[in-house]
Structure formats: structure tokens, C-alpha cells
Amino acid sequence: MCGIAGILITRATNPRNLAAIDAMAATLHHRGPDSGGVWLDRDSGIALGHRRLAIVDLSDAGHQPMLSADENLVMTFNGEVYNFASLRPGLEAKGHRFRGNSDTEIMLAAFESYGIEEALKQFSGMFAAGVWDRKHRVLHLVRDRMGKKPLYVALSDGALLFASELKAILAYPAFRPTVDTRALAMMLRQGWMPDQHCIWKGVFKLPPGTMLSVRAKDLETASVESLRETVRPWWSLAAVAEAGQRQPLILDESELDTELDWLLRSAVRQRMVADVPLGAFLSGGIDSSTVVALMQAQSSRPIRTFTIGFCEAEYDEAAHASRVARHFGTDHTEFRLTPAEVCAVIPELPQIWDEPFADESQVPTLLLSRLARQHVTVALSGDGGDECFGGYSRHFMLERLAALFRLPSSLRRLVAAALLKLTPQALLEISRILQLPARFRPAFNGVNLQKFARALEASDEQERYNQLTRFGSTPVVLDPRAADTADVPPLPDAVSRFIYRDMAGYLTGDILVKLDRATMAASLEGRCPFLDDRVVEFAWRLPTAVKIRDGQGKMPLRRVLRRYLPESLFERPKQGFNVPIGEWLTGPLRGWTEELLDGARIRREGLLHSGRIQACWQQHLSGRRDRSGELWAILMVQAWLDSTRNSKLPQSSFGADQAEMSSAPQARSLRAYG
Question: Which stretches does the entry tag as region Disordered (predicted)?
């Protein structure tokens, strides 16, 4: 796992600008603390930078940027290609000889033998890379199928810039950042930045499963929009989903479970290859327990497992994880998170995520990564299981309550209005009276019921999905332009289309961003067996009725796990990585919250609607509604603005209305509120 950066300039650009590659790569030291390197060709106008976290082949033979054997290709690469060893014999048969045992060498040889696009189709793994073809003077930028590894692309005064994180692009002296208020509005609706957008104008993320090929002369007339138009797919999630649902697997239950067991074992085994210590994140839920089960089944000694718990009992999963760890006999480490630790880490969040990011589980994920890094350099996680096998409450809620969504719109509006008037206490009382099964109770809470009510009012499926995944109904951005709509393939049912939206959007824009930044900030490599391309393709060949049944998702995965773990140890209500943020905002974080939500400050900044934010905060304080999700998103924007301003970026970064931002009050140390 590493950090990469690069610069490609036109002939009209001063070649001395290439020297900025050192500063760009230096900002990524946390992604690769073991070594670093740069490669420049001033005549061609290209510079590549790299920071290395050594995982496989710790010798200098794995140093990057790396040249191919014939020295025509130069690559800076972030990630892991897990099947590199199986590709090696075929390349050796073609005459390739290798200096070391790194996947980087294998990739370069495959590019030489098969061409860039055909070679990518043979790789199984997570990667983002810049490959310079010296003969044809073409820069190829590539990203893995699921978008596991990030790759930002920007234009600045005749230079194309790319990097693993935005901070490297900001280190290029000529880059002048300006806030994109449309991207900001979308982030505040859902807590994360859609992958096709960026907080800075003039920057975009290379989409998953795509590549971009650029020559220096192309930059003379290029714009960000024209570059986007030249991006081409080498793999398509939409095509995989559509083909899988069109040709579902015809297997009996036992055969299906055996096939899934084998696929997951293979995916886990590949991700256990490392020349450094490795372990796993363990919450005690279905996904992480499955990964740990398959790791321990293929290990001759106890694997290392790590979990994080909370002092608030209703959010704490540490006891469940501990019981699972004892069953498998893992070497288990547990950390209990307190509000004091949250207070201490919050000032770091804007620098770690670079863009406003408001999945509150970013805090425990970051601290869990730091805990694990004290013992291991690689950690496997269960991320992707919910997206592959239908594990979110909106998936089985949609399946169970489909008849309600078919009611006439007038009736749906009446039901929605009644639900929205209920207080959290009333909802708890209703759940008690109805004696709901335990697995339904987490979904039957104030926040989810309010989302469900708004979804009932929706006029179409896309709006229904937007309502089920958004934080609130009150727009707080002064320039709230319309959100993007997803391009969903013609799948056979609404649930499968929801799962597709989650995999194409939420997974890439939230889950994988959270995991990448948190682990990389700790110089830890995170690996996700559920996002193996074979597992993803297998999951899309399962009809919705096979994945979701009787109000429960992930049915095939549950049956596989029963082969390794007693059902009593994992069959419990889904918690996810929930955080008691609502209680913290009105308790230990209240001083910090009220400072960042100060009305005068917000009005000076000119980006957000002060009155609506104050109403949201007062409603949360009163206990009438849980507005913690919306408030956390606003607070992350405010903290990010503080961080950006304090980094001495030009005031023009904030657009024409931000002239008074420099006089806004500075955030005090959060330790004082711990």
C-alpha cells in the first residue's frame, strides 16, 4: 500500500514546475513511511512520485517508481494485485525475467506483453496507478474495479496533476482551489462526497474500473470536462450486475453455499499473502466474523484480531467480538472508546480526509486502525458484505413493505405525515406494544422511520432511494443545486436496483473512502475479501429472493458462517459501526459544537443557512428529533473550513462571498471539552 503522485506538463509550462513532485509526494508520507522515490523526464514534461509501505518483497527490488525490463514503461502504483504469483509463470514463458518478487514487476511485464487494458482485466486486486509510456509519450491513469484505491485528477495552468489524496494536489504551487458548492450540497445531504465530484473545482476522481490516457499536447486545449469525456471503462459494474441477474446461478442451496465458501476462502487466502504481520478487524457481526473464520481456518497459528467498543452499552459490540474471538482462538485486542478520545482526534479529521466527510464511524475506524498498526501492517475487513449480499435495513425494509409503496400517492402522504409527527419516545412505545422481533428493532427507530416516511412521499424510485439515504429534509447550503441521479441498469426488481446504487455510490464514496483514509493515516493496509471481483460477480448472479428472505439479508453468507461459528454467536440485530454521536454532541462535545455552529460565524462564511442550522440544533437539543447525522455533517464542513483556512490557502479558495472568513472565530482545542 502506498501513495502516488504525478505531473504532466505542456511544452509551454516551465519545466521547473516538475520539481513540485517532491513536495507532492512528501504530503503522502503516512501512506508509505518505508521509502520514497521520484522519476523525472524534463524533456517529456513528466514527473512521477511514490511513497512506499512495503508489504510484499521488502527489498529494494520493490522500489518505485519502477521501470519495466525494457525501460519503456515507468509506473507509480498504489495497492496490491493479489494474483500476481499465478500470473508470473505465463509471463516467464513469454521470456520475462524478474529481479524480485513484487507485484509491481509482474504488472509492468503484463503491460508490456498484453497492453494496458488487457493486462488490467487479468489483475485481481485493488490499485490506482500512473503508467508513463516513454516511446509514445502517453500517460495512462488506471483505477481498480470497485474503486478501492483513490485517484484524484486535476488541471492547473497547463499541468495535469494526479495523486492518491487531495493534499498532494494542493502542494502544487500553481493550483488555486475554489470550493464547489454543488459538491458541498451533496455531501451535506448524505454525509459523503459522490465519487464523481470533488470539494475543489477543477478536480475529479477517476471512476472505478476506468482508465484515462493523456499526451502532453492534449493538455494545450484540455478542460476538466474534456478529460472526463476521454475516460473509458475497462470493466463495468453495470454490465456485471445486468449479466448476473439475466443469467442467475441454478444451484441447490447446498451447492450454492459450497461455491460461496470456496470463493471466499480463496479471496481470504490471497489477501493473507504478506511479508509483514497481518490481522483482521472484528466487530462480531456476520461479515467480519466470516473473514476471521476463513482466516483462522487457513492459518497454522492464532491470527491477530482487533475490535473497538464504546462505554455506551447500546452501541457496544466489543463483547460480541470477544466471544467470537474466543471461539476461534484468535489473539484478540480490544480498545474501548471514550468521549475524551473522540475529542482528541476530531481536530485531525479534516487533514486526514481532505474533503468534508461525515460518516461518524470515521472516528472509531481511525482509532481502530491506529490500535491495529501497533501490532500488524495489514488488516482484513468485512467491508463490502452488505453491498454484495443485501445487508442494509433499506434492502429488507423495501422487500417487506413493497405493498405500501404501491399505495396511491394520497394515501402514502397521509401515512408519511402521521409517522413524521411521532416523537422518538412514541416510536419506542409502539415497538414495545407491537412486540417486534429483535432483528427489526434497530430499523424501527426515529431516524429510520422518518426516512421511511419521506420515502413514502417520493414520486419515483430514485427519489425514494435518496430519501432513505439522506440525513435530513432541510437544505442548509445557500446554493443547493439538484443532486445527481444514478445511472442504474435494467435490473429485475427494486431491491436489486437499491443494492446496485449502494455498490456504485455509497460503497465507493463512503465506505471505501472511510477505510482507505483511516487505515492509511495509520500506515496500515486494509484489505477487503468481499470485494474480490469473483465474489462480486458471484453475488450479482444471486436473485434477490436468494439474498433476502423473511426480513433478513445475506442469507447465503449466514449459512456459510454457520459452518464455522454457532448461530447464537452471530444472529443478533445488526448494529453496524454505530457511534453515540447524538449523545456526545449534547454532552462532552457540546462546547465544540456550539462554537462551530455560531450563527454570526456561519453568516460571515456565506456558504450555509444559519437560521436552518440553528433550528436543527435546537430541535436536537430538545430531544424531539435525533438530528445528529445532519449536525455531524455540518460540523465536519465547519471543521474542514477551519482547517483549510488555517492552512493559509488564498481567500479566493472560498469563492466571491468569502471575504470575511478570515475574521471568523478559531476553534479551540477540543481536549478542553473531553
Answer: 651-674
